[in-house]
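[job 0412] stage=complex_fold ligand=zinc ion status=START
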Amino acid sequence: MRKVDHVGIAVKSIDVSLDYYIHTLGLTLLAVEEVASQNVRVAFIDAGNIKLELLEPLGEDGPIAKFIEKRGEGVHHIAFGVTDIRSRMAELREKGVQLLQEEPKPGAGGAEVAFLHPKSSFGVLYELCDKSGKGD
Ligand code: ZN
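[job 0412] stage=complex_fold status=DONE, emitting structure tokens
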């Protein structure tokens, strides 16, 4: 775990919040896509050394809709770029870290992702993000 790939930020609307990131902060939009496995639309923004991942809920269900309902918009997770995500997950489990799923899930940009339970990580939701299958 040597590098932060992106910071995930929950927003009610990508269309509304993008104006702030692009026009006010002067950052660059990289891509927008839907991630069915998490019931969200995501926008990746280039912030130099890392990316920002805006997460907009699709519908009332799903983790991002629930997050916004409980806590409002804001920082949702921090994602570490990893390779060989299954081995990383197994290592963390051996060290007593609780993961939110048994198997990696398909994430944005063709990545495989898995989340560490905030209870194991002092209140922070961390994501493992493996894009090694994508040559990125
Ligand atoms: Zn993410």
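The pocket of zinc ion is lined by residues 6, 8, 53, 77, 79, 127 (CB under 6 Å).
[job 0412] exit 0
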